[in-house]
Amino acid sequence: MHGSIATDAGRPTPVGAAGPAWGPAPRYADASPRLPRRGPTTRLGLRLNEIPPRTLGLALVAVAALVYVVSNPLHDDLYNHFVWQADAWLHGRLAIAFPVSSGPHQNSYFQDVVPDPGHPGLGLLPFPPLPALALLPFVAILGLATPASLIAALLGALDVGLAWRLCRRLAADRGVVLITTMFFAFGTVAWYAAAIGTTWFLAHVVAVGLSLLAVTIAIDADLAFRGAGAPGRSAGLERVPSSGTATGSHHLGGGRATFIAGLLLGFATLARLTVIFGLPFLFLVGGGTWRSRLVLAVVGAAIPLVVLAGYNVASTGQPFSPAYATIARIEYHPEPALYHANWGVEDVRYIPQNLPLALFNPPEIRPECGLALLDPNCGTVRPDPIGMGLILVSPAYLLALPALRRLRRDRVVAAGGLAVMLIGLADAAHFSQGWVQFGWRFSNDFVAFALVPVTLAIARMGLNRRVLFLVGLSILVNLWGVYWGVTLGW
Prior knowledge:
This protein has helices at about 30, 45-50, 55-70, 80-90, 130-140, 150-170, 175-185, 190-195, 200-225, 250-270, 280-285, 290-315, 325-330, 350-360, 390-395, 400-405, 410-430, 445-460, 465-485, and strands at about 95, 115, 120-125, 365, 380. By secondary structure, it is mainly α.
């Protein structure tokens, strides 16, 4: 059993140790000299402390799996691009069979496929390939009948377990950890992504899990560094000395952790490209100096990116796939005013247009429907298919604001805020913000980083009425959104 900074025994975490997945783990809120020591001070936390953390984590995974599967009983897999991609690999091709308009499995209605001009009957996908790799074992057995959306729901439940693991590093009170994990599982669009599970959402689910692992490993290394004797001021933004009482073996362990975290974040990018903008989190959080973290994180992340460039060369002849540029020209644009043909696929001019949609876009209001709030034919209030603002969909994100006031004094909070900002701006610069979606699905790209300031803020405030109200409201809004997404066949 690993010791930790937060254990009753008070022993430091062994040098370089990342800690077990479910066992006792160090907590950032306890280790930071700038945050109050907050053990199981709530009644809920005291009761949960009597239950083994592994049991609680597995229970959350089981509950999430049940909710994610049951909330979308159809799982029709109409949009399963990655199943076709995995099938193409198994047949020795990089391009999928397209368009297929006959037989038990068809794809002629697919969007986001670029016909291969040199090979009639084949098409190229613009998406990074990792989700197809995740489906490969299932496709090898079940073929094109692979239930990709059901697999997405189960993978999404595993993401909930990883979120529990991350939040336990950030707070000692298990009541706080439970509430923040519930917020992630049911109060963010992670629920919608896992429940719907179509091509675009499966990619989010895969990327979220890897991002959660990367963030957790970085925080473990940061805690171990301070537990090994690094100066207390290491919580701030100032440079952490390479000398002091930290040992050389610790630097080796911290280096391995930073490299692995970078590697995982690089693999997450093979599912969702914009996740790479979260890499600066690893420059600020971990063991060793910021220079060593920067080098090791970049080297780790570069390995999957080199693999992706090689894959693109093999499939398209270019290291950067031109498929998205083609899609931007031929894709159906439900809101033509939001698309500008003379702008790039990624263009900063889209940011002032898309960011208000991402943060504040309201639902559709249909007063002619009267009080028929949940009527599939005429709902008074329904999600806007172009998306709904993050603040309306997950208002508990507002709880992070007090923590963000500590940006200049706390590396972990600053790192989380910086990663959220960079990823969010990169997504807002994209030419398309999605269609027939609930909320802003791109927020899944930074949810692992956003959990850091949210959890630390709740740990400071405790489970007061404001916290419980905003988390509860977030869950109710997302329940409403999942209902409409499933009902409308999105």
